[in-house]
Amino acid sequence: MKKYCLAIVLALLLLGISCQKKDATIIVSSPNQTNTIGFGLTAEGQPSYWVLHGEDKVIDTSLMGFEFKNQDPLAKNFKIVSQSERAFEETWEMPWGEQREVENKYNELVIGLEETEDPKRRLNIYFRAYDDGIGFRYGFPSQQGVDSITIMDEHTEFQLTGDHMTWWIPGDWDIYEHLYNTSKVSEIDALAKRDHPDLAQTTIPENAVNTPVTMRMDNGTHLSFHEADLTNYSGMTLKVDTEKLKLTSELVGSARQDHKLKVALPAKSPWRTLQIADKAGDLITSRLIENLNEPSVIDDISWFSPMKYVGIWWEMHLGVSTWDLEATQDMNTFATLDREQTSTKHGATTENTKKYIDFAAANGFGGVLVEGWNTGWDHWIGFEDREGVFDFVTPYADYDIAEVNRYAKEKGVEMIMHHETSAAPRTYDQQLHAAYELMQKHGMHSVKTGYVGKIIPSGEYHHGQWMVNHYRKVLETAASYQVAINAHEPIKGTGLRRTYPNAISREGLRGQEFNAWASDGGNPPEHLPIVAFTRMLAGPIDFTPGAFEMTLPSKPNNQINTTLAQQLALYVVIYSPIQMACDLPENYQGQSALQFIRDVGVDWEQSLVLNGEVGDFVTIAREERETGNWFVGGITDENAREITVDFSFLDPNRAYEARLYADTSESHYRDNPMDIHIESVEIDANTQKTFKLAAGGGFAISLILKGAAE
């Protein structure tokens, strides 16, 4: 990975301060003094911290500690035995991403603690203060006679300073595919979300929320809580005390084990992160999560290219075809069908795949995804005995993998592999090398993985330590075969795409497919204006936009709750280095709006949030790498509104041929979703233009460099 402008340790001070008073406070502030962290010990010797944003306290005094198996809690009777401080500054380059250059600039404070009584265990706490937020993590040093620690739970508190407006999903140990809720902290009731008919797996044991969870204080300051560098640890949910307005870390556990996690010493926890912004849009442009991860361990990632793709996927959700050859299951309800209902409308045939390859080649799309190509789909979801069901190297008889890849190469298109594990990761582990060798043989460099269902072995959860380590093993193994991973039913993104840039995208939210089969009729219009300020802060999203048929004739009880213009805008608003045009090729025929999907970039020089409020609307502009072209997307919730775009971000010395895709006065996500106005105009840095967004609507703009302005 190329690195430059590196100015590492500007200051390093090591001070032995074991005699310091327990009520003394040690502080570290961010480079511009925007955010300040204070650390101290309580009268009982328990670690505590607080956080200021400017002069406003955003986190009040909050305690820290751990419970261990067969040991006393690690929480009290500490003294400070060391303190080190340093300033750090670098600029690193994303090989692909929302921007090319990332500034990583912080001030760090490391506190060394030791118990005052035997066995005098030690604990290090690392604090980093950034101008866009803060992060801290725990370090467990090697200790005589102890080679590992077994953690029953972590008790990191975040004491809020008010009853903030919050956008949250429940702290589900198995899935993130819930609709977001909007409420005050005091009104959060995650347990009420336990029964969900549309989820193949769900486990909500506490009144807790998953991260990222975003809040807005009364003074307009925005906070988002998350974690970074989740490595060999359990995922963190945040338990909510609705009376004390306090969040406390609640680690995902295991019903197979009597503890949350076990790690060998020395060890470090993931970073506990808090992004802080004066306006909502600054949360989106923050790179705090990525900066808290280590530099890339992959020297050459040139084998992966950001791309747009199409594929055999949406037609199964629409009921046009099936994943499995014999159709022994209804894949929309996950129910086993009677044998009399079986069908041979298999989607992943050689002939059908070639149709998608032809469409991709004709429209400049880089890839084709094929789901349902391999044996095992006739016996997966809904069955308890799913171990060994899927074969990741054996295609169905009507899918010629060699011929498909030959044909794709001839057309200049790359095939994208699909591996559905049916949440039986041990089966996948056993076949990883053979599966990636097959991909390598055919020149396939990316795979969409899936983990639908309850984890086998029973008692493990998608977000516990056991599965965190499985996801990492897949990522590391894939890198050795030059394979990039797009994970569905994943562990949350925590910025590891910096260290492993073959972690290109993931699902981890309620995606487009819910519009086709969810019992509640699909995602409401407010869903994506919330996602942009919550889930997207964790990293790229494979949302699969690009639906051009909103009423879904084959699904009379469902529809897509956006206008056509908003579907276009999502290619800019919802970031991923791989973007699907999800609809059937025939639904794009004769549609002039398809030109925007052909034109829009997927890899960006820089990204700007022009305006936005969580759950209401957002407008984002992104400059494409290498070309200098810009693309703008804006979306709204169920409320129609006007948004004015000031194009002063453009190069003042250039003119742009702009193509505008906008709602009309008759557009409406429910009543008239397909109505769209398209026009071409010239735009420069002096232009301002107001767009009228329909309910559930949006607008998209391509700005192609025209040449030097006269």
- Unreliable runs, pLDDT <50, ≥5 residues? 1-23, 331-343
Q: Compute the CA-based radius of gyration.
A: 25 Å
- Secondary structure class reads alpha+beta
Q: What distance lies between the first and last C-alpha atoms, to the nearest angstrom? A: 40 Å
The share of residues in helices is 10-25%
Report the count of strand segments: 40
What is the makeup of the main sheet? 12 strands, antiparallel
- Tell me what portion of residues adopts beta-strand conformation: 25-35%
Number of helices: 12
Global shape: globular
Average pLDDT across residues?
Answer: 93
3D architecture notes:
The protein is α+β, with helices and mostly antiparallel strands. It contains 12 helices and 40 strands. A hairpin with a 5-residue loop joins strand 17 (213-216) and strand 18 (222-228). The chain is globular. The chain starts with a strand and ends with a strand.
Summarize the structure in short.
The protein is 14% helix and 34% strand.
Keywords:
710 residues, 14% helix, alpha+beta, 8-stranded antiparallel β-sheet, 40 strands
Summarize the topology.
Layout: E1 3-7, E2 13-15, E3 25-29, E4 35-41, E5 47-53, E6 56-63, E7 66-68, E8 78-93, E9 101-115, E10 122-130, E11 133-140, E12 148-154, E13 157-160, E14 165-168, E15 181-184, E16 208-209, E17 213-216, E18 222-228, E19 236-241, E20 246-251, E21 261-264, E22 267-268, E23 271-277, H1 281-285, H2 288-291, E24 307-312, H3 314-317, E25 329-330, E26 335-336, H4 350-363, E27 367-370, H5 401-410, E28 414-420, H6 425-441, E29 446-450, H7 465-480, E30 484-487, E31 503-506, H8 514-517, H9 527-531, H10 564-573, E32 578-580, H11 585-588, H12 594-599, E33 604-613, E34 617-624, E35 630-636, E36 641-646, E37 654-662, E38 677-683, E39 688-693, E40 698-708
Parallel strand pairs: 24-27, 24-32, 27-28, 28-29, 29-30, 30-31
Antiparallel strand pairs: 1-8, 2-8, 3-4, 4-5, 5-6, 6-13, 7-12, 8-9, 9-10, 10-11, 11-22, 11-23, 12-21, 13-20, 14-15, 14-17, 16-19, 17-18, 18-23, 19-20, 25-26, 33-34, 34-35, 35-40, 36-39, 37-38, 37-40
Helix pairs in contact: 4-5, 6-7
